[in-house]
Amino acid sequence: MIQLQNIRKSYGSHEVLKGIDLTVNKGDVVVILGPSGSGKTTLLRCVNFLERPSDGQVTISGFTVDCKQPGKQNVLKLRRKTAMVFQHYNLFKHKTALENVMEGLVVAQKLPKEEAKQKSLDVLEKVGLSDKIHHYPSQLSGGQQQRVGIARALALSPEVILFDEPTSALDPELVGEVLAVIKKIAREGVTMIVVTHEMGFAREVANHIVFMDGGVIVEEGPPDEIFSNPKEERTKQFVRRITPEWSYVI
Amino acid sequence: MGKAFDPALIFEFLPKLLAYLPVTLFILVAALFFGLWLALLIALPRLYKVPVLSQLAAIYVSFIRGTPVLIQLFLVFYGLPAFLQLFHLDVSRANPLFFVIATYSLSSAAFFSETIRAAVNSVDRGQIEAAYAAGLTGRQAFVRIVLPQAGMIAFPNFANSVIGFLKDTSLAFSIGVMDMMGRGQTLISATAHALEVYIGLAIIYYLVVIVLEKGFVRAERRLQRHERKWASA
User: Fold this and answer.
1) Containing domain of residue B43, as a range?
2) Touching check for B231 and chain A: CB below 8 Å?
3) Shortest Cα distance, chain B CAs vs residue A9, angstroms
4) Which of B126, B229, B230 has its CB closest to that of A90?
5) A175: how many CB neighbours lie within 10 A of its CB?
6) Predicted ipTM > 0.95
7) Taking the model in full, what pTM does it have?
8) In the prediction, which pLDDT does A246 show?
């Protein structure tokens, strides 16, 4: 279980997150929606301390880090319970697909090389890239790179995978293959928090939607409720504006 | 004035000069070895913005870049023994080669530290974030992800500097080191055929640079194999 309590983040005098509370249960697929600048990506990056929150607490499966004085070792321990998929993939440029997936297993988790390799080959097969394991990122399409990114996260067997707009840097025709992979692993019960603009995907895969605006959670609930029957005026506006053009079936 | 120009002498001098090529190369390799480690030490406080140390490093780099290497050579040659005297160490009779290597290490370190700093800073921030997200420590991320990529970025610049330093070593004779240039000076004193000696030296330096350049091109291609669009089968 992941629990965020009173997460705050300020840049100078500008407060980006104004005290966020969020609970994610094991196996949940939580999608965070909201207009740009609403703080959703910042919130996601606070979970693994790529952004250090100014205040609050992050708890992942019983391990709590106090954001006021996190401490290097605690942050490392917390990060090792998570994995992240980035908007721009951020694959290690000088490593092949296989080496990218193995890196965290060998270096952070200290698995023996052979075991790490086997595990990496398994997840690469799961994302459909068994034939590309010796390719460098520059030799892969955007969609393939992002699938390696997902494999890299999945291989770590984290408590939660954080997806930061995983499809927004992709060519439109490559979005489908990446969403299909995310959907597949969601169905296997992997806990995830996803920041995305893909409304169709959110509606179909999420079991909990969080709508953020202006650094606060405006409304949260099951997808049907948020999309069909939002309570807050701000959510209604957002859903009305964004649903028609984005509601395609994956 | 020298004697009449005699091209045949060039070929007579070449092997005599070549016999001292190893000394020149030794100075270069030793200075590069120490210089690179020192460069990393100078670059780190500036990269991590360590107070005081980073300012000191900046002053050091600025001083080295702002003074001719010939003067640095004399500063070390006369200054280092005086400095070590304070600690009751007498190095005034040490082999001049030692001072030469010390100077070129100190000097190349300043240039390399700038190259390293620029290269490390130009590694995409996302690479470090990905390393952290995968559970790597700061040091692991730096050594395993940032440094290799910085190395590739810095390599062409580094290669250029090496060629520059090779040529700079020709100043070592001025504090009495018997390298190729030093040997050339003795040949000139003995025969008064200065032009032939300098032509011979030019040929040798030029050939060594060509060999180095070829090697660097190969190394660069190998280092940047991950940038190639097609995987080799």
Assistant:
1) 21-179
2) yes
3) 18
4) B126
5) 20
6) no
7) 0.83
8) 53
